[in-house]
Specification:
The complex is a heterodimer of chains A (297) and B (386). With 297 residues, chain A is α/β, with parallel strands linked by helices. Chain A has helices at residues 20-32, 44-49, 69-83, 95-100, 103-112, 162-168, 182-193, 208-211, 218-228, 253-257, 272-289, and strands spanning 36-40, 61-63, 88-94, 117-122, 148-149, 152-153, 173-178, 199-204, 234-237, 240-244. In chain B, 39% of the residues lie in helices and 19% in strands. Chain B has helices at residues 7-17, 32-43, 57-69, 80-85, 87-95, 120-124, 138-153, 182-188, 215-244, 270-283, 301-308, 330-338, 360-371; strands at residues 2-6, 22-25, 50-53, 74-78, 101-106, 131-134, 161-166, 174-178, 205-206, 252-255, 262-266, 288-293, 295-297, 313-318, 345-350, 377-378. Classes of the chains: A alpha/beta (297), B alpha/beta (386).
Chain lengths: 297, 386
């Protein structure tokens, strides 16, 4: 059982108001517990939580480089095994570190079968460097390197399906979660760290600064992603879908209109063609994971 | 007991006796025989280590960072492109003061691709904060591993180490070598006692981010540790000599330097050839000697100045090239600095790159050039290709 009173991510860190990743860190540690070691990647969370000589981390924490947290975690796990120690080994890394620059190390660590839990806090762009697109950036999102313009509707490609890549590595437990559903998130972390072998958890972590919404609306945005089907909370156990959160879906417009990164789809005029493409992504998600609850007539 | 053994296998025997808990490596020629042999030791239960067969050299050293930070003695080995791929991790490991020991089978860097020997790889990582020892023969190569772990893990040092040796020339050569018994190594190299480690019962944060208010002092401390390493390597080398009869109590070795007028300076296996060439030149009445550098980082400035005091000219043999540098070689600059204001002429000779053979007559020709005041040049180019 998750001890929700446990606070292992200290206050006083330097995150923006309403930071989804900061909330994710707090919830992850509640789920993982005190007997944990964290390997982090370079990124927002690393910077806002460890300005020397202060640290928000009340579990052992190491940051080496941007792209190598999973390899560092491999070494930690091997060392603990030799020493007969039992701490859970977690990676907590952003989407750039996960989807892009760290792919090689992640693939190697999962193939080797280390007993680690890799958690990606997914805020869908390189936020630490000023909101540049990553492989996790959704279709049509405007970022500083995929700006909407006269010849562009924003990011040209849909989000990479990272969880399925880890499923293909034979990971025993692959799941997604959202900071907007804290109990579900904590329970998934607890399950992942207690599942032997390499597990992957991808957490939707809205970024008010990068996505363009008021910091008080983080939970609301997170919920809208789920309710529109643009984010699906699911669990895959041994390669099979074990659970997916069902919803009475709302049109994607509600999620898109609430964020500045999609504003170009509505101004100066509503872009029916592009919004239809995004709706199709949500429809495909819903079909793939079977999340639709049919409203009663 | 003396045995005839391939250099790489001798390294593996030495590493086994250092008892690393975690070995993490990726295959690259000419380092492969080391990691293959270590894998056999683990497979046969002769070595109680976790052996990580990783996806790249980058991951190999990253895993070493994690294992070292968690409190284990760790070992890796690489060469050439592999070392350059690790470069980012190298700077990081020394910044976190993790005492990792890594054998470097020195090999040229592409392009063009070359699997053959020079020392460009480790010299290029001069400023990465690892101390660098260079072995002349297989015996030194073996002994430097015990010495390096002892110095690296010293709580007054806490620096990672390269044990450098010339690819193929030492890695694939069979030489008589004494591999000390496990008990003797245990007496010289105590079990790893980490200064600090990742431990859930005593949480610390490692590798934090430092603002301009704090960053510089970390680099200062790293440099100070490197300065202290000079003394620590000599002390460990002397202690090694007292126990094993082979002393490394100096960062340099002088060969027939008494009354020498021209001194050659070199690192690594080329010193064997140079010694033979010096003997021949001495027989011919020429006052020539060799100053062998065991360590490039820390650079033994005082010992170099003392050993070269009284010579007229110095010829530095460089198995590296720093394009655009006036001296061309990286080692010559350091030697020149050590001899600043002495009036002694110091010349660099870029030689033997990409495995080009260096013969005794080439050494003699370099001495001729130095004595005629010609240097800071490539030696042994095929003029017809230029």
């Amino acid at each position: 059982m998750v001890d929700t009173s446990l606070e292992l991510f200290g206050c006083g860190h330097r995150a923006c108001g309403g930071c989804g990743p900061a909330l994710a860190a707090r919830l992850i540690l509640k789920g993982a517990g005190e007997n944990s070691i964290v390997a982090a990647s370079t990124g927002c969370m690393e910077v806002f939580s460890t300005p020397y000589p202060e640290t928000a981390w009340q579990v052992p924490w190491i940051h080496s480089l941007f792209e190598n947290a999973s390899a560092v975690a491999s070494g930690i796990e091997a060392s603990l095994k030799r020493q007969g120690r039992s701490e859970h080994v977690l990676c907590i890394c952003g989407d750039g570190a996960t989807f892009d620059i760290g792919m090689l190390c992640i693939s190697g660590a999962f193939e080797r079968g280390h007993d680690i839990t890799y958690i990606c806090y997914d805020n869908e762009a390189y936020m630490n460097t000023g909101v540049q697109r990553s492989g996790a950036t959704p279709y049509d999102a405007s970022t500083t390197t995929s700006p909407a313009g006269k010849e562009s509707f924003g990011n040209k490609r849909p989000k990479k399906d990272m969880p399925q890549i880890l499923v293909a590595h034979g990971a025993p437990y692959v799941a997604t979660a959202s900071v907007a559903y804290p109990n579900d998130l904590m329970q998934k972390v607890e399950r992942a760290v207690n599942t032997p072998g390499p597990c992957y958890l991808q957490i939707h972590a809205p970024c008010s600064t990068g996505w363009g919404f008021e910091g008080g609306k983080t939970m609301e945005i997170g919920k809208l992603a789920i309710q529109t089907g643009l984010w699906v909370n699911f669990e895959m156990v041994d390669g099979e879908i074990a659970k997916a959160k069902k919803v009475v879906r709302k049109p994607v417009d509600e999620y898109l209109m609430a964020q500045k990164r999609f504003r170009h789809l509505f101004k100066p005029a509503r872009n029916e063609e592009e919004i239809a493409k995004i709706q199709a992504i949500a429809d495909a998600n819903a079909a793939k994971y079977g999340i639709d609850i049919k409203p009663k007539e | 007991m003396m045995e005839i053994m391939e250099g790489s296998h001798a390294v593996a025997e030495a590493v086994k006796r250092c008892r690393p808990e975690v070995v993490s490596a990726y295959p690259i020629t000419p380092q492969t025989h080391i990691v293959e042999r270590l894998a056999e030791f683990v497979a046969d239960g002769e070595m109680e280590s976790d052996y990580l067969t990783v996806d790249s050299e980058f991951s190999a050293l990253s895993a070493c960072v994690g294992a070292s930070a968690a409190g284990s003695r760790v070992y890796s080995s690489t060469s050439s492109q592999g070392l350059i791929l690790m470069a980012e991790v190298c700077f990081n490991a020394s910044g976190m003061r993790l005492p990792i020991v890594m054998s470097i089978a020195n090999r040229a860097l592409g392009a063009p691709l070359s699997i053959w020997n020079d020392q460009q790889d480790s010299i290029a990582l001069r400023d990465s904060g690892w101390f660098q020892l260079y072995a002349e023969d297989v015996q030194e190569l073996v002994d430097y591993h015990f010495l390096s772990f002892r110095v690296a893990e010293d709580h007054n040092i806490l620096l990672p180490a390269f044990v450098c040796f010339d690819g193929f020339i030492l890695s694939h050569t069979y030489e008589p070598v004494d591999i000390p018994d496990q008990e003797e190594v245990d007496a010289y190299l105590p079990p790893f006692n980490p200064y600090q480690k990742l431990d859930a019962t005593d949480p610390i944060s490692m590798g934090m981010y430092a603002t301009p208010d704090y960053y510089m002092e970390f680099r200062y401390e790293l440099d100070r540790a490197m300065e202290r390493a000079s003394r620590a390597i000599k002390d460990a080398g002397q202690a090694f000599g007292e126990q094993f009869g082979r002393s490394y109590g100096s960062l340099v070795e002088e060969y027939r330097m008494d009354d020498a007028d021209t001194a050659l300076v070199a690192l690594g296996s080329i010193c064997g050839t140079v010694k033979d060439a010096v003997d021949e030149m001495r027989d011919a009445g020429r006052k020539v000697g060799l100053l062998k550098l065991r360590s490039f980082r820390p650079f033994p400035k005082e010992e170099v100045a003392k050993a070269l005091d009284g010579v007229s000219q110095v010829a530095v043999l460089e198995k590296n090239i720093s394009p655009g540098s006036a001296m061309k070689g990286a080692v010559g600059l350091e030697v020149k600095d050590a001899l600043w204001k002495t009036g002694i002429d110091v010349y660099s000779y870029v030689i033997g790159l990409g495995g080009r053979d260096v013969r005794k007559k080439d050494i003699a020709a370099v001495v001729d050039l130095a004595e005629r005041g010609r240097g800071d040049m490539f030696y042994g180019l095929r003029e017809e290709l230029i």
